[in-house]
Every structure is written in structure tokens, then in C-alpha cells.
Amino acid sequence: MKLFINLIASCLIASISYAGDIKLQNPTTNLQAPDFSGMNSYGEMIKLSDFIGKPVILEWTNHECPYVAKHYNENNMQTVQKIARDQGVVWLSIISSTPGDQGHVSPKKANGLTNSRGAHPSHVLLDESGEIGMLYGAKTTPHMFMIDSTGVLRYKGAIDNIGRGMQFFDASFAKATNYVSSQLSNLVAQKVLTTGSTVAYGCSVKYNYD
Amino acid sequence: MQEGWHTYWENPGDSGSPFEADWSANEGIIVENVQWPTPVTIPYPPLMTFGYEGDVVFPFKVFRSLDSELESISLELDFLICADICIPESASLTLDLSSATRSPLVSEAVNNLPKNFIQTKSTSDQKKLKVTFQSSEPIDSAYLFPRQDNLFRYMPTQKLVQLNEDTYEITLPVLGSDISFFSGILSIDGKGFQVEEELQSPSNMSLWQAILFALIGGLILNLMPCVFPVISLKVLSFVSMGGDDHAKIRNHALSFVGGVMSTFLSIATALIIIRSTGSMIGWGYQLQSPVVVGILTLIMLGIGLVLLTNINFAAGLTTLGSSAQSRNDYSGSFFTGVLAVVVASPCTAPFMGAAIGYALLQPSFATLPIFLALGLGFAGPYLILALKPDWISTLPKPGAWMETLKQFFAFPMIATALWLMWVFMVQTSGDALILLLILSLILGAAVWMIATFKGRWKWVGMMITAIAVFQIFNNLPASSNEIKEDASAESWSLEIESELQAQNQAYLINFTAAWCITCQTNEKTAFARDRVKKYLAEENITYVKADWTNRNEDIAIGLAKYERTGIPLYIFWKPGMHGSKILPAILTEDLLIKSM
Fold first, then answer.
1. Are B264 and B212 contained in the same domain?
2. In a shared domain, residues B21 and B67
């Protein structure tokens, strides 16, 4: 009987995961962040839970997206990365673009971009299947997630308060409130952040939807 | 736009951006914000965006004053145009109004704008929002485009169900928090309608929770200022029973509980009956009638006098606190229970407001259990005494001190009477108050006669009082509906909240009444304090007062919006808050400022 129930259960689970129904998850802040593993630009497997003991920041990126481009062209993203890395944070830049779509890069190109833009990620993860992106409900580039050293998700959302309007392209980063850098010290202190979640803005993540 | 490319609606969905238009025109010409056409869903699974494909016209309304010149107006347009990838673009356009002709494209676009509102009725919980609407024609598909950007999960389709012949229901998954307000465009088979709805705050209280609140509220009610004197007398009578046999104590306690419970039951029944006639009524509503206030004044005064003169009626009022000598007469205990509930009506204890609000706004079957729980909480301590009569020996030993204390309790009773006189005056007029004072005098004389003379005179005293009460209340001057305006406060209206929110103006609303002693205490300990006044002025918070001393349907409806039927109720809102917030029922200066 028990075997029978198990059988039905596994069939159900199987049918759910193979229904072809791609679904974005929506992880809850101040709960354990979902664990994942993915390939970095040097071909190494990187696992989130390996970084327990250090805060981790996830940055969804796509170098061809105009929103991301402005952040990098004006040295804004690099500055935030530097501040975070200096405080012992592990910074993971994640590319969830599907092959052939905007922002998809080869490992070599990914490393080239890091060098040419003077970026400071700890690792660049190539998430071609979009698995990590959907696990975190990453919708836009950029889309930021902050995880504290115990593995608790503390922030999800936009990088700053400029917002999705067209004013973004004329806005000054210096005048904006950066949700990541302004909340770093509380992240390091494993505290509940004042701003725990915002609406991310930018280009859509180029998932494989065909 | 070429095939495969799109631009966005004002809420672009999961990504993207609406365009931004910056008009410049000479003085006398004003260009309004764009009127958004009905968008379509542009899915990029698992993401969803809202916008326009193909050719789209965005109409702007231009107003001019009569003396303005028809000149050129120019537009700086920044927009995002996307296929799989997005390109930010900008354009500078100029239009010479003097030579402009109306294009048929524009007329068509204006005709197709979603201008009409469709009436919706929605309910929401943590998971989904269900929107019902009516359509006389059959519907194949419908999609609600929400204007707010962080309330809903955007799905490729929204579940549409036909509830009956012309009523449909559409379901949207909610992102996590309760929805108190939403607006947007409802597209029914491609035709758009404006939607805007303020939800009845979703009842996040279950029946069990309401019953629990009622129990706690009832228990705390014992300590409220209107009830305390009556209750203390009851406690005193139990003390005097210290040496009595347990059966007697138990029977007295049970009689008291019986009095409390049957009064709550009668109130609940009365409320259900009155409510079924459609009137909006609530806790303490009976005090909106000056006759009830007047009679209550006399009862309070009467008890005070009886306590002072130390007379001993065989039954009724006077067994209060003096049951040590009384035989096996339990009607006194029963009546004290009734009286305790009657005098409690001007008081709302913490937790009680929410529970009674729930009781009265839910279907009738929920009303009775909640009122019974309230009674049970109120009578709880005595019920325990009935179960464990030997606990009475833990109370102090009876003695002469009790007589003194009993006389002392006359003063809180008389003080309550004075306060009720003030309520009576606010409700009616100075003339009517004089009549009530004369009645008080007659009552005093009657009590004196009963105390001093024997036999027949006692009855004469009672008769005089009864006739006087009847005569005077029968000829009461018409009650004045003019409540003295509080100069420092805005007066309340049913629309004031939406008006102030529309102006982005923070506000604090005080639902109060002269007969609500909890409200009056809060006035003194919080609202009237200089620090609070200063804070309101500095933070630019509009202070609104809704005075419910006299009957007022609008205020009852206003309270119902917060699932309340009684007062006090304090509402606060400031820009940036999604919905307004209910402040605690008992306030101090600090608490009030902190909770804002």
C-alpha cells in the first residue's frame, strides 16, 4: 500500500515537473534562500551552500541590456561590487540568457567582459537553462538578491530607487538610494533589512521560452 | 511598430518601461497626461509584460484658454521599444496647432479608449483576488491589467468563471499581502473598461479568533471605569459571604453570571432584530437616545444615594453589596449582573471593538456566540468563584471597613451620574438638563422618604418618582442635532478619506462620542495634549473628528468600513501607506505619537 502511494506521489511530482509549465518561484525574504549549484566561467561547479559563513549577493545581468549597460558604463555596478567585496561579501553575477538570445556569452567572453569593464564579481555563473533564475524569480536585469552569512535571504528587488520609468536613462546614480550598498552593514550583521523587497526594473531576463 | 516589436502600458508588467512624454507649450495651453489605450498581454514565459503591438495611438488632451494663440507645441518623447531585446529611443516632435487637422486614426483611437468604469466587487486573501463583474453579453475571455506594480503575479491568462447568467468572476494571484485597493483596465474580449475598487478590508479574523477576543475583552471590561463601581460592590458582597456555606456562595455567583449572560443574550437578540430592519447600529448605540441616558443617570444616582443612606430594600437595587443578611434571595445577584452590563455599554474594552464589529457585520449565526463569549469573559471571575467557592476565603475578612468602603463607592456612582448628565446635555439642551436635575431632586426626596418612613409612605415615594420620570421624559425638549464643533478638527464626511488620500494629505480620524467614556479618556490623555497638537501641526496631519453622540447613519457606515460597529476607533493614514491603519483603542500621548 505504502509503495502504491509512493508510486502515485512520484508520478504526480513527475507530471508536475515535466508539464512544460515553466514557473517562476518567489522566494520569501528572511527565510533560508533556496540552494543552487551552477557552472562558473572557469568551468567550476559553484554551490551557494559552500559560502555559508559569508554574505552572498546575486546580480542578474545581461551586458547588452540598456539598463545594465548604463550601470556598467557609469561605473556604478563596479563600485557597489567593490564595496561589497571589501566587506567580505561573495558576489555572484548570474547570466540566465538562453543560447542565441541577448546577453548569452561564452565562458571566455564572460571573463573578457569582467576584465574590460573592471568588474569585481567573485564568480560569473552561466545559467543557460534559466534554472537558477526561475528558482529565485529573477525577472529583470539587473535584479538583486542579498543573502546573509547564515544563508537567509534578506533582500530581493531593484538595485536602487530610480525605478522603471524612462527617467532611468537620464538619472544620476549619485543621487539615488542604492538598496544594496546602503544596506550592506546590516546584511553583514545578519539583521532584518529596512527595505526587504522592492520591484526590480530593467530588461526581462531572456529565458528559454520557445 | 514592425511585427514582433512592442512598447509598454503604464504598468509594463515584469519588465520594461512606459514612455515618458515631456510637452512644452506656450502659456495658456495645457497638455494633459496621456490616456492609455487598452493594452494586451505580451508573454515572455515565464515573464509577462503589458503593452501594445503593431500600430498604436496614444491620445493626449490639449486645453487652451480663450486668449491663447494657436501655436506650435513640442514633445520630447523617451520610449522603450522591445522585441526579444529592448532599445531605448527618443524623439522630438512638433505640432503646429493652427494647421493641424484631425486624423481619422485619432478619432478611432479616442473612441476605443477604455473610458467607462465597470462595477466590480472583489474579495481577496493572501493568495488570490477574486473580482466579480457583470456583463449582459456572453464573454469568451477577460484579463484584468492592474495599474499597481507590486500587488499581483502576472499570469498568461486569468481564470474566468461564469457565476450565473450575467455575472462573471476573474481570479488574479496575489503576491503576498492583502489587497486593500487596486485599479486598472479590465479587458473583456479586447474591449477595455476602467476598474477601481477599494476592498472592504478583508476579514482576517476567524470566528474563533473573534470569540477569543470577546472573552478577553469581556474580562478586561470588569476594570473599565463605568463598570468598576458596580463590580466592586459585587466583590464586596462576596467578601461578606466569607463565612457562609459554599452552596449559597455558588448560587449567588451563578445568579450573577445568569444576570450577565441573559442581558448579553437580550442585547444580541435586540441587535440582530434591529439590524434585520437595515439600521446601522452598534455597541453603545442605546446611549444615543437621551431617554436612555437620562434613565441611566437616575439609576446611577439612585444607587449612590442608597449606598450613602444605607437603607435596606427587600429586593431589587439594594441587595447590592448587602446580601450577607439577605435570605436565600438570589434575584439581587441576578439584577446586579443585569445592571453591570447595562452600565458597561458606554465602555469599550481593548479587543472588544474588533470582536463586536465582527459579530455584527458577519451573518447572524456568528453574533450570538460572540456575545455569549463576551458575557462569559465578563462573568468569568464569578463563574470561577461558583466552581471553587472556597477560594473566597483568600479574600480579606469581612468587618466594619466594608460599610465605610460601601459608602465610599457611592461617589464613583454619583460621578458617573454627573458625567451622564453632561452627555445628556450635549445630546439635548440646557433646558432639558434642568428637567433632569429636578428629577434627580425628586429621586433624592423619594430615597429619603423610603429610608425614613415606613409602610405606605415608602410606596408614595416610589409612585412620585415613577410619575415624575414618566412625565418629564414624555415632554423632553426635542434633541438638538447640533454638536458643538471642535475648532481644531475637520468635520467628518463619508468621502473624506478618499478626498484626503487623493490630495496626498496625511490624516488622523477620531471616531468619538460624548457618551463613550473610553473616547473621552483618550481625548484627555492624548488628543488634547499640547505635544500631540504640536506633532499634528508639525507633521501636517489633518485631524478629523467624527462625533457619534447623536444617531448618524453615515458614521455607522464609516465604522462598518473598518468592520466596527462601536467606538472608539482611530484611523491614521499618511502618503506611502497602502491602506489606513487602526490605532489602539486606549491611547496615551506617547502611544499616539509613536503609532503615527
1. yes
2. yes
Best of B9, B17, B50 to disrupt the A interface (most A CBs within 10 Å) is: B17
Q: Which domain holds residue B97?
A: 6-112
Classify residue A2: in a domain, yes or no.
no
Q: Is the pLDDT of residue B35 over 70?
A: yes
What does the mean pLDDT of chain B come to? 79
Dihedrals phi, psi of B79, to nearest 5 degrees: -145, 160
Instruction: Of B163, B414, B174, give the one whose Cα is nearest residue B307.
Output: B414
Tell whether A9 is covered by a domain.
no
Q: What is the CATH number of the domain that holds B141?
A: 2.60.40
Match 469568451 to its residue by C-alpha cell: B140
B414 found inside a domain? no
Q: Coil, strand, or helix at residue B517? A: helix
Confidence band of A111 (pLDDT split at 50, 70, 90): very high
3-state SS assignment for residue B64: strand
Query: Total structural domains in chain A?
Result: 1
The pLDDT of residue A72 is above 90: yes
3-state secondary structure of B191: strand
Give the integer Cα–Cα distance in Å for A52 and A49.
6
Q: Which of A27-36, B25-34, B114-123, B321-330 has the highest mean pLDDT?
A: A27-36
Please indicate, yes or no, whether residues B85 and B131 belong to a single structural domain of this protein. no
A123: closest CA of chain B, how far (Å)? 25
CA A2 to chain centre: 41
Q: Picking from A15-29, A164-178, B126-140, B358-372, which range would have the lowest pLDDT averaged per residue?
A: A15-29
Unique residue bearing C-alpha cell 476594570: B223
Asked if the structure places residue A198 within a domain, the reply is yes
For residue A126, the enclosing domain spans 22-204
Question: Tell me, what DSSP letter sits at residue B525?
Answer: I
Determine, for residues A165 and B84 on separate chains, whether the beta-carbon distance falls below 8 Å.
Answer: no
Q: Is residue B427 part of a domain?
A: no
From B76, B96, B112, the end of a domain falls on: B112
Residues B283-317: tens digit of each pLDDT: 666 677 778 788 888 888 887 887 787 665 433 44
In a domain, B456, yes or no: no
User: Of B112, B141, B169, which closes a domain?
Assistant: B112
Within-domain flag for A10: no
Q: Give the burial class of B173: count Cβ atoms within 10 A of its Cβ; 0-12 exposed, 13-18 middle, 19 or more buried.
A: middle
Q: Which residues contact B96 (CB under 8 A, 6 or more apart)?
A: B71, B72
Query: Which of B274-288, B403-417, B492-506 shows the lowest mean pLDDT across its residues?
Result: B274-288
Residues B68, B28: Cα–Cα separation, whole Å: 5
Residue with cell 468602603: B405
- Within a domain: B461: no
Under DSSP, the state recorded for A88 is T
* Contact across the interface for B17 and A66, Cβ inside 8 Å: no
Same domain, yes or no: B43 and B89: yes
| Amino acid found at B418 | L
Which residues in chain A have Cβ-Cβ distances shorter than 8 Å to B15? 139-140, 164, 201-205
Q: How many domains does chain B have?
A: 4
pLDDT at A101 (0 to 100):
87
Direct distance between the N- and C-terminal alpha carbons of chain B, in angstroms, rounded to an integer: 50
| Statement: residue B261 has pLDDT above 50 | yes
Are residues B24 and B50 both part of a single domain?
yes
Nearest CA in chain B to A101: B84
Q: What is the mean pLDDT of residues B455-478?
A: 71
Cβ distance of B14 and A140 shorter than 8 Å: yes
What CATH number has the domain bearing residue A26?
3.40.30.10
